[in-house]
Amino acid sequence: MTYKLDEKILSGEPNQDSTRAGFGRGLVTAARNDENVVGLCADLTESVQMHKFAEEFPERFVEIGIAEQNLVTVASGMAHVGKIPFAASYAAFNPGRNWEQIRTTIALNDVPVKIIGSHAGLNVGPDGATHQMLEDIALMRVLPNMVVIAPGDAVEAEKVAVACARDSRPNYIRLTREKSPTFSASDAPFEIGRAYILREGSDVAICATGTMTAQALIAAAELEKQGISAEIIHVPTIKPLDETTILKSARKTGKVITVEEHQIAGGFGSAIAELLSERYHDVIPSTVEESVQSTKDSSSSLCSAQNDKFLLHRIGINDQFGQSGTAEELLKHYGLTAENIVSTAIELVQNRSN
Amino acid sequence: MTTIREIEIHARNMRENIVRMLVAAGSGHPAGALGLADIYAALFFDVLHYDRDNPESPDRDILVISNGHTVPVFYAALAEIGAIPESELLTLRKFGSRLQGHPERKSLPWIETTSGPLGCGLSQVAGMAYALKYWKVSGANLTSARLSKDGERVSEKTRDDGLDERRGSNGSARGLQRFVYCMVGDGELDEGNNWEALMFAAKNRLGNLIAVIDRNHIQIDGDTEDVMPLEPLDDKFRAFGWQVIQIDGNNPESFIDACAMARAETDCPTAILAYTVPGKGVSFMENDYTWHGKTPNPEQAQKALNELEAEKL
Question: What is the pTM of this model?
Fold first, then answer.
């Protein structure tokens, strides 16, 4: 099934919205669906776009004050008696400030608290390094039971909020402050744990998470002009990874680029590196449908690696903190742009050819 | 109804089991567990509303152990009421045991929430108490759910006299309202998360929340007042908007009365400052902070058991 893209994404003037805004709309829908959905916030209600929920469901909105450790532990208590709490603040503090509380009272307890880390990444811009959370994926993906999701755009973020409200596990949802290009159509799928091929290609596989996926798509269009065929894999769920989809694209091309607005150490790129290092040569079913079939006939429907080796390049923040500046300036400075993806892909493809 | 005398006997049995299980485990925290035996006996034979045969009964009171290292006293209480076999106590801290070194929710159904890392029990309990007070919670018809949207109590059947409302361990006298109890160590009040929780509980008038502070004055590095002074602790709780009741924590009757007073106060949370003797019942452990986190060797354990046995006579 072909993933349905927003038709304006490659128009040069794509629709722009923030993932936090999409999340805010999705939370209202989730709350309409289920009266157990409650919202907790730490003095940042409008910033994390919980205000629409708070207006429609004031009796289900709980103001915690500037106390992120309390935010998640109170949420944990509520989850213990059957509630589905969405606990929201900036990612720098949630999970930055309160990680141990999340570990013990949510992950180890295995209760369905939804941790919302907004304003993640460099794009908070002028606030500077203190508020530019670049380590949250690493912090959260090492926790057993935790699901980690970085929605790609506002449209998807809306679906993520609804899907997470129905998920019985602890979830971390990573959101961004700035508007970013919308690439997914309103009827594009989102399922926790699935990666999506947005564009098929044969020379290089570009795996992107969060709002970096839009940059990858723009890069793919440019690469095509230069004669390079890029496959774009959108990976909104960083944990659990859709290993089959990613391995398949990696083997098809033998060249993989990961893109994230996060430290490359411990984050999304690391997760892909771990996967490829250990499982690149595994024999796996080539599609989900075939995996069902393969239980009946194991000889015919398995694919092996088409390329016996792979090259990997991770684009992200390389062991540095951010700084003040506009989002655009910072993303450019740290190489989180379509242009940098293009040049990295060209280098990787040429390296392989040599 | 269980008499105070019977509760005292249960507490002594529990102390013996605490010594036995800790010496078998070879590690653990005797002082706090021994000091809390009277309170736990009172909780399980009088104060708490629960169903021994159904730890998840939807109208049960909730007990959370924020000072998770004292969990042996909780396990001993479960054995004392017959909820777990006494023989299982000797599996404490061992591989594959349901009796984990610190309380783990998924390991034993009686444990409401995983705890041990100090300072975050009160806030979890505050979340539970908030949900019980203001929202419908799953699987129970509770007065706490019959509230107007702004959280005002529409009607509440309070006990005319809490002292007459003591409920037996079989949960026969059913309370209309669920209460949430939290055991808190005094040393763990060093943790800032507690004070965030205190503000939250007072703001939201969580009268269904009762914190029991084990004021035994010891923590790993010494006396609480040397490590990081807590006094005037009662004033601190009052200043944060809590009702404070101070009792001898080794007197079960005082504790039962304090819980009744706490339940009667519906508009603010209550802290019961329970002054306990750490290591209570074992002469060489009493009031000695070095017994916070080390276990007796077999000879010391035998001496302790002899003392506890002698006390029975």
Answer: 0.90
